[in-house]
Each structure stands twice: as C-alpha cells, then as structure tokens.
User: Fold these one by one.
Assistant:
Number 1:
Amino acid sequence: MSNIIPLTAGGKITGIVPTDIEQVFRLATAIAKSGLAPNGMKTAEALTVAIMHGLELGLPPMQAVQRIAVINGRPTVWGDAIPALLLSRGFKIKESIGGGAETRCAQCEITRPDGQVFTGVFSISDAKTAGLWGKAGPWKQFPDRMLQMRARGFAARDGAADVLGGLYLREEIEDAKPLRDVTPAARETVTPGAKALPPTVGEEPTPDDAIEVVPDLPVDYGPDA
C-alpha cells in the first residue's frame, strides 16, 4: 500500500515550516547534503542559523536559505528580499534614480502602514566619500544598481527596523572591511618580592625590565575596621 496521499481537486501545496529546533536541523542537514546550499552556508549549522533568522523575519525556510547570506561573519539579507518582506506587511515602497553622469542619485521612499514616511538617499558624491565609486566589482559593473541598494538600505533600516530585526543588506556589508580585534594585549604584573616562575622548555626568560611592577597598595577595610 502506498503512503502517498493524492491531492484532491482544489488542493494546495504548502511549504514545509519546522516547528522546533530538531526539525530545523534535519531540514538544514538535508539541504547541506543535497549540494544546493549557497556558497558560505555549506554546513548544516550555518543553514540552521539562516533558517532560524528567516523564521524570525517571516521567511519560509527555503526562501531564507536563498535570501540570507553570511558576509564578514554576520548574517545579512539580500536587497531584493526587502520589497518582499515589506510589501507582505503593508508597507509601500517608491524608488527612483536620476541625475547626470556625475550627479546620479538614488532615492527610496518607504511608507509604513501607519502613514509615516522614511526616505533614503545615496548619490555618487556619497559613494566617492565612502571610497566605493569605481571600485572593482558591482560598483564598476552596475553602479546604478548599487546606488539603489544603498538608498533602499538606509530607508529600510530607518523605517522598517521592526521588520528587518537588525539585519543589514548584503550589499552594504560586503563593501565593509572585516572587523578586527583592537583590544590591547594584557600585560603581566608582578608583586615585589614574588619569585618569578622558571621559563618553560624552549622559552627564553623575560628580562626584569620588561615586566611592569605594581607597588603594594594600602588596604582600606572601611570605617568599621
């Protein structure tokens, strides 16, 4: 006996939406093994994070896998996903681009369901200031498109932060330099009179003048001491 249930007339096929973390991981594992996962999300763990981010935004799992990308170590959403997310929630989007060869400027106007209007603008002048204009890659091949995505990103993050959940557009983050740790390295301190530990095998002893010495400070036990 077959376990396949035939669709009746008027039946509707719906997407699979997991209801717990185990189902999310099983689905992510299947996508990873299928070889259809996008670059940068080849592991089941990375796909799990993408699917969970998508569910928070209201994207079905398979759409989340295609519309969420990991750039410089952080999840981002493709600019083309913004209209889908906003329009499905009652927002209105109006975009335009104009100007001459040296004065091109993109504008994106987003109207919230309550009527508030937010406008994002990005011009060639802005791109030059940011060091993007003429940069090898999309900025050189599709300059108008990149201006449009930047204007859209500004408007969406200002006017629809509740929808995006803090996610940036991929087109914004991929132009940014990766973050680096600038925390100063910890310096070793030694109390006067303490004996230094012998160096480990293969390690040169540290000169005494290279160690910062911290003097003993008086201890304040409070007024009741």
Number 2:
Amino acid sequence: MQNRESKLSLWKRGLEVVPDYVWEQTELETLVLGENTLSELSEQIGQMKKLRMIDLGHNLLTRVPEELSELDGLSEFLYLHDNRLTSLPLSLAKLTKLRYLNVSQNEFEVFPECILGMSGLIELRLADNYLISLPDSLGRLAQLRELHLRNNRLSSLPGSIGDLQALRQLDLRGNPLTHLPRAIANLPRLDKLDLRWIETLTLPGWIADLEARGCTVYR
C-alpha cells in the first residue's frame, strides 16, 4: 500500500533497521531517520525517486549505498552528520541538484571525490573530520556560498579556493594552518572568515584589506 503523504519522520525511534514499509512509500519527498542506531541503509532507497530531503544524521552508518545516487530529484539537503563514514560512493557525483550536504563529525581522512561533481551545492559542511588536504579541483563548486571545515587537520588550502566566487562564509576554526592563499582576499562576496582556535598561523597582511571592505574576520 502506497502512502501519499510527502513527509515521513522516524526521528529518535531507537531503530536499528529501517522498517520495510518505509521503502514502499515512493511518493515521499522528505524522509527523516535521524537520531537512531542505524548501521546500514537498504539499497531499496534507490526506488524513492521523489525524495528531495533525507536526514540520516546521528546514526552509526559506516557506508551509504550506491543506490542513493539514483535519487536525481534530491535537491534540498542530504544530512549525514555524526555517523562513522570514511568514504562516499563515487556515484553520488550524480546528485547535481543537491544544494546542502552535511557530512560533519564522521571519519573522513580524504576529501570525498564525489562531492566535486555536486555542482549545485550552496552549502557544504565537513567539520570535525580528519582531512589533511583539500583537492585542487575544489573550485569546481562554483555555486558554493558556505564552506565549513572546522576541526580538521588542514595545514594549507589550495589556491583554487579563489575560484569559489560565490563564497560568503569560510569556517577554518581549529585547523593547524600555517599558510593561507592570497586568493581568499580576492573572493568578491566573502563576508565571514573564521580563523579562531588556530595557533599555528601568522596572519597575512591582506587580512586587513578584507576587513576594510567589510568582511568580518574572527580570530
């Protein structure tokens, strides 16, 4: 029996497994499965073609299925915050309509390559992971307005960050940065740069130029 409701929330239900009836509700646009103890997700999620928003945060997921990439209508957000993910399937690059991705508080040591294909992203949250570098091709995310990288292991940033011409907020708190590329100073829409909790960085002179034009720099 198909449920015609557009939203289903099973938030904080103590679920270890998603009930089978959920996958039958193919008319859903929003699915909330956050704050459970899910360790895996069925490949049946790929048949829920109308999903625009999925909340899988605060679970025990170590992987997400390839079939997630078949949700080409996924546009509002994909929330994977606070799981145990170390990688994402390359096929997720097909989610080109996705605007918001949160994979903070996981176990990523390498920037997930699939994210570079998510050309519609406006907000990307990768805080509280173990990233030691960002890819040179980061500039491909041309629509990005917010980039949150708090509490990783970054010592530097690629110069291609200057290609993020729509960027407004850049959160670098708590990284062991020793250098900032001057390209940041040329980001025309940047209005917030957060450099708090960084003890390894000597601030470059162009920070004053950013502040003079109205960008708030937290240090």
Number 3:
Amino acid sequence: MKLLHKGKVKEVYEFGSDKLLFRFTDQISVFDKIIPTLVPKKGEALCRTSAFWFEQCQKNLGLDTHFLGLQDSDKMLVKRLEIIDPAKRPISRDQASFFIPLEVVCRHYAAGSLMDRLATGEIKPSRLGMDRVPKKGEKLPRPFLEFTTKLEETDRPLSDDEALRLSGLTEREFEALKKAVLDVDALIASRCEPKGLIHVDGKKEFGMNARRELMIVDTFGTLDEDRWWDKARYDADGAQVELSKEMVRQHYRATGYHEALMAARKAGATKASEPPIPALPDDVTRQVTELYVSLYERITGQRW
C-alpha cells in the first residue's frame, strides 16, 4: 500500500482506486505540536470509537458516511473522495464524490478558545444569542456553529458566506450540512449523557458521495476531536472535569510551556525556532491511556 499522507496522529494509505486505509497511531498532539511520547492504546481507542459513531449515524440518522469497516483494531477502510483545493479550482455545483474543504465546530458550552476570543472581543456575545459574556463552563442558549478552512496551511475562521462560497455547496446543501452537525451532536448527547458525560464541543468534516448526498467523514466523537466533562461533577457544583485530550493541554499550561510557546509565536518565531514540546511524564502518560480506554467503554457501552 502507498502512504498518501502522514498526519499528527493518523496515516492514510491508498487501498485500490476507490478506498483508503486509515491507521491510527499512538502519537498525540497539542497546540499543533506532536508530543515526543507514544500513548499506548490511544490509536486503537480512537479507531474503535470512530467506527462506533459511524455505525450509529448510519443506523439512527440515515446519514451516509465514508466508513466501510474495521481492518484491525487500529485501522479502518473508508471510501476515497476527490480533494479539490478551492484556491486552485472552484468546486462546481455538479461535482460528486468530493471532500468539502471545511471544518465545522459546534459548541454547546462556554469553554476553551471561545473564552479567549470573547475576552479579546473577537467574538461578541450577541453571536451566541446572549447580551453578556458567558461565564466559563456556562451552557450556551443555543449551539454555536463555526467554520474554518481545511486545506490551507493554517486553519482560518470563515463567515457563513465565505464557507458557502468555498464549499461548492448550494444554499440548501449548506443548510443541510449545518442540520447534520446538530443532528449528530443530539445523537451524541442522547447516548452519552446517561453515561455521565457532557459533550461540550467538537469538530466534524463532511463530503458529498457519488450521488452528491451529504456524508460525514474523517473522525468525530472522540477524545481528540471533542471535549467532554464529567456530568455528575458539573451538575453538583459546576466543576468542569476534563475527560478529553484537554487534560494534556492543561498539563502543558501548568508547566508554563503553553505560555512560552504563545509568546514565541507572538514574537514571530518560525516553526523551527519555536520551543520544542517536552515529553509527557510517565504518570501522565498512564493517566492518558486510562482515560482513552475508559471513555471508549463509557461512550460505546462495550468492554475493552
């Protein structure tokens, strides 16, 4: 098999003319940095959790996916879509079997980078349906959808008009995409809240199949793409106990690495001159492995 792409945590191989093989590695990344530590069982947990959600979408929502089946515990076979860079060639309205060059983030609570952008005024509370800045951890009055570019060197926030133009979708298809995001998140919440999990936010990617019908692709509903909190603690006292890769980000915030990295980037450092990210301590690595395995079991209801 030919290796087509090696990402931060996933390798993509050619599998015949119309399929791809995803291999999920045990690498972990934060702040656009690959940590020089392998997290045992992480790749398998991501792969199996992703497969679970693809099957749930097909069964409960009738939403097409690119998922074809597991090849191993850390590998899955998917349909291959054409990738068209809209900066080089606009996507026509009669194109089929293509990757939509957008990343969609849906937020249900005030957390993460949303709080930073509210603090700087980049996002106004009115966009959230509020007349004030929400408190950290507060549930938003309605889901907040955002779009970013996917094929550019650095992900760039987009307005709905820009996202529609780049996507190659009709207005009706674009609205269907937004509805699909909300439907998937409603499915995730209905499945996970009874298991004691709050689905805080998450990202999703889509394509159009051979019939130019919407399909969900890549991975979603995992600890890498989504943020989760412990529901019992939140309901008891509002505590936001992180049950996702966010715990790793918090480790690097606590050590001061995140502050140093952001200062370097603000000063114009190149990728090569940015401070290298330290390895995870052994005890933190074990905690991360335990988290990925335990969340797989809670989300899917299946034993490891």
